[in-house]
């Protein structure tokens, strides 16, 4: 593909629709309400994994990084996800809690961009989230080595088996490393694709506890 990648990639279609209509005459004052409306439609339209989002962080050198996560809840202008403190993103957030969340639902031609500050919700919130995960997901989380170099598959299997045994012996057991984070939004943009590229964008901004919104050029 390398020599002809430009031809191949430029030949692919993007944003060909059809897309849902978006009535911008009656936008809600609060962006979480609009987020939940859009999420509801994405679920109804059977978008695959509509709750998957990209979270962007920066490391201690200011170098950005991004990866996909699952959103666990959205309420009161805060957006929740769970991860290990030892992971790269966990380290980045402890150094700099400013993050961005991005959703893209190709079937709807919709993108949502959220910028905010991540807050660690503490031991108990992390424990509750961990106990709600499937037994195997819980055992993997409890290995407490996310993002660290892995010497061999055997090392991984051995470590998971140890954690499974611990969970068998004590079904309530958790690791303090697994945490639930809330991203308190300060800016949220809703983007609706248009097949003629006259995309519709509305940006919500939080000032002194009040949300305002404005339309942006496509
Ligand atoms: C659809 C999807 C869902 C994911 N959900 C999570 C999640 O909820 N928590 C998590 O820690 N990693 C999740 N991951 C894995 C992350 O993308 C990432 O590989 C991992 O968290 C390590 O990232 P880091 O090294 O930047 O910390 C998910 C990946 C995908 C593709």
Short description:
By secondary structure, this protein is α+β, with helices and mostly antiparallel strands. It has helices spanning 5-11, 31-44, 88-95, 123-131, 135-142, 153-169, and strands at 52-58, 64-70, 73-75, 78-84, 98-105, 110-120, 178-192, 200-207, 210-216. Strands 1, 2, 3, 4, 5, 6, 7, 8 and 9 form a 9-stranded antiparallel beta sheet that branches.
Mean pLDDT: 96
Ligand list: flavin mononucleotide
What is the end-to-end distance?
A: 32 Å
Q: What is the β-strand count? A: 9
CATH class of one domain: Mainly Beta
SSE class: alpha+beta
Helix content: 25-40%
- Low-confidence segments, given as residue ranges, are none
Radius of gyration (CA) equals: 20 Å
Order of helices and strands: HHEEEEHEEHHHEEE
Based on the structure given, which CATH architecture of one domain is correct? Roll
Continuous helix count = 6
Mind summarizing the main beta sheet?
9 strands, antiparallel
The fraction of residues assigned to DSSP E strands is 25-35%
List keywords for this structure.
oxidoreductase; Pnp Oxidase, Chain A; 218 residues; 9 strands; 29% helix; nine-stranded antiparallel sheet; FMN; alpha+beta; Pyridox_Oxase_N; flavoprotein; globular; binds flavin mononucleotide; 6 helices; Pyridoxal 5'-phosphate synthase
Explain what you see:
Keywords: Flavoprotein, FMN, Oxidoreductase. By secondary structure, the protein is of the alpha+beta class. It has a domain at 26-134 and 177-216: Electron Transport, Fmn-binding Protein, Chain A (Pnp Oxidase, Chain A, Roll). The protein is 29% helix and 33% strand. It contains six helices and nine strands. Strands 1, 2, 3, 4, 5, 6, 7, 8 and 9 form a nine-stranded antiparallel β-sheet that branches. A hairpin with a 4-residue loop joins strand 5 and strand 6. The longest helix is centred in the C-terminal third of the chain and has 17 residues, at 153-169. The chain starts with a helix and ends with a strand. The structure holds flavin mononucleotide. Flavin mononucleotide is lined by residues 49, 52, 65, 67-70, 82-83, 87-89, 146-147.
